Amino acid sequence: MDQCFQSSCSTYIGNGLAKTYFTLFLASMLKNQCDLGGPYPEDKGNLLNSGNLPKEYDFIVVGAGSAGCVMASRLTENPDWRVLLIEEGGEPEANSDVPAFTYQPQISNLWLYSTEPQPGACEGFPNKVCGWPRGKGLGGSSSVNSMLYVRGSKHDYNKWYSYGNPGWDFKNVLYYFKKSENASIHRLRQSKYHGTKGYLITSDGFDHTFDKVADLFYSAIDELGFRKSHDLNNGSPNGYGPVQTTIGNGVRWNAARAFLTPVKDRQNLYVVQKSHVTKLLIKDTAVYGVEIDRDGVRYDFTATKEVIVSAGTINTPQLLMLSGIGPKQHLNDLNIPVVKNLPVGENLQDHLLFFSYVAINPIKLDIKDDLDIVYDLLKFRNGSLTKIGFLPLTGFLNFTCGDSVSPDIQFHNFYFPKGTKYDIAQILGRYPAENRNLILEKNKDYDIFFLTPTLISPKSRGKILLNSTNPFDHAKIFANYLSHPDDIKTFLKGIHVVQDIVNSEPFKAVNASFVYAKYEKCSSFKDGSDEYWNCLFTQAASTIFHPAGTCRMGPRDDPRTVVDPTLKVVGVDNLRVVDASVMPDLPSGNINAPVLMIAEKAADLIKIDWKFITPPIIDEIYD
Ligand SMILES: Cc1cc2nc3c(=O)[nH]c(=O)nc-3n(C[C@H](O)[C@H](O)[C@H](O)COP(=O)(O)OP(=O)(O)OC[C@H]3O[C@@H](n4cnc5c(N)ncnc54)[C@H](O)[C@@H]3O)c2cc1C
Ligand SMILES: *[C@@H]1O[C@H](CO)[C@@H](O)[C@H](O)[C@H]1NC(C)=O
Ligand SMILES: *[C@@H]1O[C@H](CO)[C@@H](O)[C@H](O)[C@H]1NC(C)=O
Ligand SMILES: *[C@@H]1O[C@H](CO)[C@@H](O)[C@H](O)[C@H]1NC(C)=O
Ligand SMILES: *[C@@H]1O[C@H](CO)[C@@H](O)[C@H](O)[C@H]1NC(C)=O
Ligand SMILES: *[C@@H]1O[C@H](CO)[C@@H](O)[C@H](O)[C@H]1NC(C)=O
């Protein structure tokens, strides 16, 4: 601290109260800055060198992402169970913790995957592929996501149940959504749909600096006749409203902060970071441990009860296939001895999002200057940096069948006031420079909306395959986007709603107009025509980062099944998969909350199997 003064104007500061007060102030800000992070469980991998890390555990969890953090937290509630949690990355950095910086690059916290090129999708991006970043490090993708807390529709889970998955209907999963949640929004704390005793803080992430923008938006929505919803997480998301966010006490409530931080000192919890699980150890068809690589050195660990793989939709099937669990033909092609022939890697699905750009005359907003919002964050944990801007205003529309099934389009809306400094360029990072500049130029004089239909009940399916037997090689991702013709049709209906918004009286009053992106392949179509939009989907639609489904849950006798309804891998002993890959279908919304729910339920299933608890009584009936 003294150095600060010496380097600037130490003679002027002198000594006494002036120096004391200024020093106190700066020291407290520095401390508050550090307090934004963690504290997380220490990296027990440091004990490996000295041979002081136990080799044997009751349970081993692979991956400290959304699901893995819940698993380690809940399983260590039994003090007699020793649990090892192994994670590829380290602790999240400050860009992760400050909600408003969610679009800042966090390269060290990411796996940078790309899809394989395919005709009809992602054609307008470099190398004709879509980028698929996944989170790496404590919290996994929950440490890099946009913090939207969305559960989807009750019909999503009733459909899972109808496929032959007892215990996964809405009534049952709601119990676990509630178990995980500590709702901080006052009006929701009394709601029968929300929990207040869980580890995951949910809150209102809307930045009220943008109230006037919300008013404009809602008046257009009213004119169009859409419903305004005060809780999109009540099982029947339909209409527009503010979404809830996983932000607590002004910072990102990633899964590690939520579920591991409160239990970080448990003696039976061993978290090993910066280590790559390379293989499951299997004898005949029984899993008995894992092999890891840390700094190029190999170590083995054994699990006396179970190994739980929570490495995410891409890495979980990769690890299973590397270990001999997967499609027989594919494993044979790579000379991997087959332990169990299962459709691992199939049933891949993702939510596709499309940015349409709309310019409006600038709305006068009371935006505070940067230093003030930094002070608000560090001193009070409030203000604009603790929010995610305008994005939280989201909407769900039921085009196909009204309320009787899940919605098929969700809107994620972005708003950038005139002269926005960073976010547009960052968000459009992989879009062609020509189009990026078009938007940035327009933003010099106008406010810009990104009105973004998102395909939330896609019919297209893709798959994941190994590229090689090297565990450090990336798997191949065949997204197979828009391969089902209905998906393009639904997308177009989403754009028609955007057109209605732009043509509404409130939007006309602010001179709203589309900014049409230009793609060579689409140049023969008239701007704004259906042909133009259909063509643009093939060029510019991209992921909203919800890949799922690659280890499908289902009845044991269904050939599409990888895990049974207790998430045990079929035909392999002592192995479960617990993460986004077990979803039979994507829920119709963002999927972090559903993944946490799955893990909460899985932890109970395991505790029941090993007789630590008896099944909870779930007797509340919801309409
Ligand atoms: C940029 C982005 C934005 C998103 N926005 C939202 C949003 O706003 N709202 C929402 O609900 N959802 C959002 N999502 C999706 C959501 O966050 C993820 O679906 C969810 O976190 C997935 O949880 P998971 O447990 O399946 O996998 P992950 O959280 O990805 O966890 C997998 C973990 O396993 C580790 N791992 C993988 N392989 C190995 C290995 N071999 N050895 C050791 N460790 C390994 C990884 O490093 C990672 O930490 C977003 C995702 C991204 C990437
Ligand atoms: C829920 O969150 C609030 C802060 O919003 C905190 O004070 C309270 O202790 C939390 N409850 C639990 C059960 O963790
Ligand atoms: C932040 O909290 C402080 C102290 O409670 C309060 O005075 C201030 O108005 C708050 N600021 C914002 C932007 O909410
Ligand atoms: C969508 O839901 C609303 C409200 O329940 C209903 O009135 C409307 O008919 C539905 N729309 C369609 C296209 O089914
Ligand atoms: C697969 O391996 C080939 C050959 O080494 C390489 O060119 C390609 O980039 C790899 N694909 C992925 C997805 O890593
Ligand atoms: C409306 O927008 C158009 C183009 O975006 C611009 O040329 C025009 O001057 C604007 N009109 C008003 C009244 O602001």
Please tell me about this protein's structure:
Helix content is 29%, strand content 20%. It is built from 19 helices and 27 strands. Strands 8, 18, 19, 20, 21, 22, 25 and 26 form an 8-stranded antiparallel sheet that branches. The relative contact order is 0.17. The model has no long low-confidence stretch (mean pLDDT 94). The structure holds flavin-adenine dinucleotide and 2-acetamido-2-deoxy-beta-D-glucopyranose (NAG) (5 copies). Flavin-adenine dinucleotide (FAD) binds next to helix 4, strand 4, strand 13, helix 11 and helix 19.
Attribute tags:
27 strands; binds flavin-adenine dinucleotide; binds 2-acetamido-2-deoxy-beta-D-glucopyranose; FAD/NAD(P)-binding domain; globular; 19 helices; single chain; 623 residues; Glucose Oxidase, domain 3; alpha+beta; eight-stranded antiparallel β-sheet
Strand content: 15-25%
Unreliable stretches covering 5 or more consecutive residues = none
* Number of DSSP-assigned strands: 27
Which structural class fits the helix and strand makeup? alpha+beta
- Based on Cα principal axes, name the global outline: globular
Rg from alpha-carbon coordinates: 25 Å
Instruction: Provide the CATH topology of the domain at 44-92 and 256-344 and 548-609.
Output: FAD/NAD(P)-binding domain
Q: What's the CATH class label of the domain at 44-92 and 256-344 and 548-609?
A: Alpha Beta
Mean pLDDT: 94
CATH architecture label of the domain at 44-92 and 256-344 and 548-609: 3-Layer(bba) Sandwich
Question: For the report, how would you describe the main beta sheet?
Answer: 8 strands, antiparallel
**What hetero molecules are in the model?**
flavin-adenine dinucleotide, 2-acetamido-2-deoxy-beta-D-glucopyranose
What's the number of helices? 19
What is the CATH superfamily label of the domain at 44-92 and 256-344 and 548-609? FAD/NAD(P)-binding domain
**Range of helix content:** 25-40%
Q: What is the end-to-end distance? A: 60 Å
